[in-house]
Amino acid sequence: MDRWAGIDLRLGAALAAPICLALSTQFLFQPSLYEHWSATEIAVAWVQELAHLAAVAFAIVVAIHVAGRIRMRGTVPRLASFAFAAAVGAFCGEWMVLWVRWHAPPSSVEGVMVMALRWLPLAAICGVIAFSRARSRGNELRLHQLEVDRRQLERKAIDSELGVLQAQVEPHFLFNTLATIRRLQKVDPAKGRETLSGFLRYLQFALPAMRSRWVALETEVELVSAYLDVLQVRMGSRLRVEIDVPAELRHLPIPPLSLATLVENAIKHGLASLPEGGCVTVRAQRDARYLVLTVADTGQGFVKAEGAGSGLANLRMRLRGLYDGAASLLLAPNEPRGFRAIVRMPCDDCAAPAAHA
Amino acid sequence: MRDLSRVVAGAALGGLFIGSMEFVQTQGLAASAWHEQAVWLARLVLHWAISCVPIAAAAVSLERRAPGGASVREYAGAVFVGASVGACVMALHGLYVDRGIGQWAIGMDLDLHARYLYGVWVLGFWGSLGAALHAADQRQKRYSEKLRGAELARISRQQRLAQANLAALHSRFEPDRLLASLRAIEEAYGADVAAADRMLDDLIRESRCALGRTLA
Lengths: 357, 216
Fold this sequence. Notes:
The complex is a heterodimer of chains A (357) and B (216). Chain A has 357 residues and is α+β, with helices and mostly antiparallel strands. Chain A is 62% helix and 12% strand. Chain A contains nine helices and seven strands; from the N terminus they run H-H-H-H-H-H-E-H-E-E-H-E-E-H-E-E. In chain A, strands 2-4-5-7-6 form a five-stranded mixed β-sheet. Chain A has a two-stranded antiparallel sheet with strand order 1-3. In chain A, helix 1 packs antiparallel against helix 2 (39-69), helix 3 crosses helix 4 (109-117) and helix 3 (75-102) runs antiparallel to helix 5 (119-187). The model of chain A is unreliable at 350-357 (pLDDT under 50). Chain B is an all-alpha fold. Chain B has two domains: 2-145, no CATH class; 171-215. In chain B, 87% of the residues lie in helices and 0% in strands. Chain B contains seven helices and no strands. Chain B has helices spanning 2-26, 34-65, 72-97, 99-104, 112-170, 175-191, 193-215. Chain B is rod-shaped and about 120 Å long. Chains A and B meet through helix 1, helix 5 and helix 6 of A and helix 1, helix 5, helix 6 and helix 7 of B.
């Protein structure tokens, strides 16, 4: 029945009013009819004509409205019922109006029928307009729904791109850590086993966090410590680590493996190839509404090594997807030597902006 | 050529419509033999079809100028021009070509001026309704097209999304399996170091493969 909901009294009136007004002007375009009338007589005739038309149109609209309320299946019976209602409404309307106008019931049924017939093409045109209007409105609603769907799908697409980017980090991280453990195993089996056990213990609780979209800074720092422990066993005194994360920032959400990516990058491309080693500093600070993570090393600085930057590019894309351009990754030389990566991300105390989207 | 056929079709439709209505109103005035009535109907239809040509031409040229849908003002302009010119055609035709029409059409003999006014009203009235119909139809067509485009776009977006999700799934370790493997390696180091090394190598190879898949 919803399809016929648009054919109501208001729409009927909206279509009938201008048609009646236009029809009432017809005799004004035939000056020979009123060439001997006074202006008042013309005005009265026009008002009478308009009232006549309006009454008949009202009868038709009511008849169609009543027909629309009858429960009915199928388009053809429905349209037939409307046509019939329009005919009956027109005939009855004309009959009554003529009766009122001439103070006596019309003498000829055929005469009334001819008067009523002129309404049928008008009713048909209005019906087509109303029908196409209802269909347009249905399409409009559907388009609106599709637009809503599109927004949701786009959000999902961004999510799934982020998923892919995050998925790239995970095997990368695993591969590097496992390879380090394997090398360590050859040099110092006892240390290797110990490291493996530590890493395993860590992964048991960190893996679910790595899979989620957000991870507490605290968890990420623990991951980085575990990773640095693994490396420290291998590099010994060549690797010094400083971690400075204030307790009040530890609950803030950050993208998982972001800090790990920076630390890994600092060691792989900064310190690993230096015989004397160096120091990695991890620092978290609050700058107004931003959380600033800095990972600095005292390594060899900017050296274009093979594979360098793929982790950073990945992180940059993830930041763009998660924060929609509000976060930044800045790379700068460190003083007096080495390399420094700074991530600035907006953080209200509650959660990151896209966390609940 | 296509435009010309559209103009002819529009004019024929208008002529048929207005002509038959006038026929219903004037049939009592015409002769009663059926073939005479048929000729009368044909004359009325032809008379109005010719008069509808300007309005049909205006509609087609409007369609051409505003393919994205015309405004109310443009429609009104087209109907006004079409009806004014059409009424001239109608008056001249009724007065000089088919004089019978001029006398019978509305039951009285009208001069050129009166016939012109009558034609302006008839063509303007039905032309406006035709324009409203045309506008509603065009609007519906536009929506249908938009809807079709949006549905297609939605399907392709869903496909892309499914592909991205599949890629993400492929690249991941099953967390339980990964932890189980690591635990097995840890245990193996207690018993058989060479076997444990091999298992670790396998896992490293696997993580490298997973890495390769995500970058592909």
